Amino acid sequence: MPRKRRAAAEMTSNDGDRYASKRSRNSSSRRSSRHEDNSFSQKRCMTWFKEYTSPDCPDTLGPEGMEKFCEDIGVEPENVVMLVLAYKMQARRMGFFTKEEWTKGLSEMQCDSIQKLQYRLDYLRCLLNDQSTFKAIYRYAYDFARDKDQRSMDMETAKAMLQLLLGKQWELFTQFSQFLDQSKYKVINKDQWCNILEFSKTICDDLTNYDVDGAWPVMLDEFVEWLKGARSKSDIS
């Protein structure tokens, strides 16, 4: 090969090597950048938390902050997924997240931004499909939603939470809600709350497997009696 052509070939080869090396570094840099974006940052998580707090109460996200938070992630405050998120955080009070609760829940889910949490919303919804997890969320909801100054949950709150958790799952929910509307009950205690779930899971809609001598709370015995009476009147008419 003539000297000029050989020098040109060597230059081209060297340029190609340098280009390949540069491309490799850039590619590696992009991969590293993507890795950093996907990794969880405690600092980013806390910076995000502070967007919803005020200088007067920097360690607690309150109702106003919750409203903005729900708007940012595109979820209505009344959506059941917010209850599941509160469960993951083990939040103690409805409408509030403390810094510790926020850190616990979002660290576990590796979420430090709106986009990452939005990506995990389907995962939170899917937790409701697991029977044991749903039961845990249902039991958690009682202490989460009740007034902490009261041992029992007021009826309006109870009906709203039952609608949220059982409204689409329990065929008899509408009738049970009607029963509560006309009943003497003003509150629901924890034993009643837990047994409502068991009743909805085990008793057939036609009540054929209901045992009058079973250990159900009186509230549920009265519901069965009321429902049978309502159905008898419907059959007569």
UniProtKB/TrEMBL annotation:
It comes from the Eukaryota. Residues 1-38 are annotated as: Disordered. The keyword rRNA processing does not apply. It holds the Pfam family Cullin_binding. Its main location: nucleus. It is found in: Nucleus. GO terms for biological process: protein neddylation. Keywords: Nucleus. The keyword Nucleus applies. One of its GO terms (cellular component) is nucleus. Residues 40-228 form the DCUN1 domain. GO terms for molecular function: cullin family protein binding; ubiquitin conjugating enzyme binding; ubiquitin-like protein binding. Neddylation of cullins play an essential role in the regulation of SCF-type complexes activity. This is Defective in cullin neddylation protein.
